[in-house]
């Protein structure tokens, strides 16, 4: 264990800045408990300096041409590609997910960067010629000012890349608060953004906890806040920031269900289901945590458990690892406690608490865990476990399964596995969930669409990236114009409201 770990800097006005705070947190490798670095909880003055830097930069950045902005993100996507292995290695060390999954984390964010480079086609207004006598009306999509983002531990590359590229490319400036648990890969991405040409002050980073979050929500200069994280914190952010007059989008907790129809392709379905339930150690807001087996699909339980036992639990850096450690010891304790409660409620088919990883005995490892005959009202059904735990429920038909999903308050994502077009269509029409997969277990949309979680999983009307986020990060200004020909005769004074 390092006795003098490096200190993570802030990033203000294009410079890496050492914090003056007295409050620090260790960044710990979840597979070994090695302290990798220390992250500061920034002071109020440091937050104010970051916002002031962003406000000053906005005065010139908003006037920068669309072409110039797009070229920065063309360069940025190139730099991310060139540094993919390094970024994945940093991410795995501090967060725990496998190297392959870490690359996937970076890549899904990279897709948004690529989309940002197409801003010339995204930030278009509208024009109507001669709406009245010599009058034209047109709309402009203009940036709103200083924006901020608060990101979670589970996707420390992808989710920051959901936020600041789209905010910046639309002409805004940005203050980012990454997770205090794993900010190192985020900082590397910020350094690459500066290398790509993002000017000083346009992108700033402040580290911290509750005080910094509240400072962002309250700051009078910040115009919009984007948040991804837990329902508890997201609800607090939404309420506090909207009271300050800000635009807010909050992507929050989930309890995602998959319906398994008896006609589904068995092997493909089980493979997809286990990947979605246990990948990233279940620490995904889009993880499938409840499988509803319809009719005779319940006979697949033995195969589901047997296949789960073949998954390799190990450190993310080890070849062939399927399930890495949980992010922290507190996460390990919470997941283990929920498994213990679940064992008193439902049938524990596979207990991941017994897993031992040779060479990484101090790691936060929980193996694939499966409960069967899980019903609404049980603790393991009602709470988002955020670990490698799959709850299996049974339903007599698709109608009962759909009713169960629609009764759950969350609405992030859902899926159905079937070979029936009729069943798939019925599902997509009747399910009240924002993101639907048909034989796709984690239906996170590609960047030309928007992330559309719904109900208790989302606060705010507009989602991150895609078309919706262009509306979130811009304000529409409508101009009605008439240019008079000096030689034309005056029609005199018109005291009506019409444009004739």
Descriptive tags:
Aldehyde Dehydrogenase, Chain A, domain 2; globular; methylmalonate-semialdehyde dehydrogenase (CoA acylating); alpha/beta; Aldehyde Dehydrogenase, Chain A, domain 1; 6-stranded mixed β-sheet
Structure, explained:
- This protein has 500 residues and is an alpha/beta fold.
- It has two domains: 10-252 and 466-479, Aldehyde Dehydrogenase, Chain A, domain 1, CATH 3.40.605.10; 256-438, Aldehyde Dehydrogenase, Chain A, domain 2 (3-Layer(aba) Sandwich), CATH 3.40.309.10.
- It contains 16 helices and 22 strands.
- The protein has helices at residues 44-61, 66-82, 84-95, 99-116, 119-122, 158-169, 184-196, 210-218, 231-243, 266-278, 301-309, 329-343, 379-382, 398-407, 421-430, 466-472; strands spanning 10-12, 15-17, 24-28, 35-40, 127-132, 135-143, 146-150, 173-177, 203-205, 222-228, 247-251, 256-260, 288-294, 347-350, 369-372, 389-395, 410-411, 414-417, 436-438, 454-455, 458-459, 474-482.
- A seven-stranded mixed beta sheet has the order 14-15-16-13-12-18-19, sandwiched between helices.
- Strand 3 (24-28) and strand 4 (35-40) form a beta hairpin.
- Helix 2 (66-82) runs antiparallel to helix 4.
- The relative contact order is 0.13.
